[in-house]
Amino acid sequence: MSLSIWLGALEQGLLWGAMVLGVYMTFRILDYPDLTIDGAFTLGAAVAAKFIVAGYNPWLSLLLAVLCGALAGLITGLLHTQLRVAPLLSGILTMIALYSINLRIMGQANLSLLRVKTIFTWAKGLPALGPFGPALLGLLVAALVLILLYLFLETELGMSIRATGDNEQMIRSLGVNTSTMKLVGLAIANALVALSGGLVAQYQGFADIGMGIGMIIAGLASVIIGEALVGSQTLVRALLAAITGSIIYRAVISLVLQLGLPPTDLKLLTSLIVVIAMAFPLVRRRLGLRALRLRSEQGAAAGQRNQDL
């Protein structure tokens, strides 16, 4: 594979990294199966693309996409906390509603950004960076998001959100409003997802109504891969694992496509990657126990031989 292929995988992994952090926020920290992510990703792309085409600054358009993503997360949270809708169903309802909303925003199924300036137009235009401009921009955005999310989760509010996911009844007994914690957590998670959607739309040069389909699976695959390779013993390692998993996942996708897999089979490949990543810790644990048992049996046999002698 050429350098451009690996560089493209790195760029995509970093740009999708904010989405993976959003998935980590809901599934790992809040313990909330939020399917809003598929719709929020497209929402971020649609809002960013629409405002850029209308002549707004690309960075401002990205900020507006983040705010719309946070609003989508709030709606999901309100359905759950105020109307007592089950977490899974609340996300599905918002995701379905966002499909029509995204079509309304774009006015069509696909919105092109090829003839307008985006943040990547600026990055590619820097002569000192050359072809590495988008990758460095993606790295800066991913690093900034990771640092801000870490600092937030270390605050008292962030600790309360983490405690809500760990043990909701316990933290409620201490006087914390867990409904508010869920609302804040879901808003931040979907804001990150929408940020990723806005970045990806500008990177690819278009926003499409179907670009968010399967994002939740891709995010879960990235989180699980990262945790299997990097670990999640501390918050810093867990956040770094999410970004690392996103890069590895995109690299695997690029490699398999180069080997001749039809693009139509990508969803099947994603599902297989998730299954393998989820089975990896279990297989590793079983192999470790088997090796430990074998060493124990060998030690017992050696001890018995010594007694016979």
From TrEMBL:
Q: Which domain of life is it from?
A: Bacteria
Q: What is its main location?
A: membrane
Say if the entry is tagged with keyword Transmembrane helix.
Answer: yes
Membrane-topology descriptor: Multi-pass membrane protein
Q: Does the keyword Iron-sulfur apply?
A: no
Q: Which residues cross the membrane?
A: 6-27, 59-79, 86-105, 132-153, 183-203, 209-231, 238-260, 266-283
Q: Which InterPro entries match?
A: ABC_transp_permease
Q: Name one GO cellular component term.
A: plasma membrane
From the Swiss-Prot or TrEMBL record, state where the protein is found: Cell membrane
Swiss-Prot/TrEMBL keywords: Cell membrane, Membrane, Transmembrane, Transmembrane helix
Q: What is this protein called?
A: Autoinducer 2 import system permease protein LsrC
Give the organism, scientific name: Neomoorella stamsii
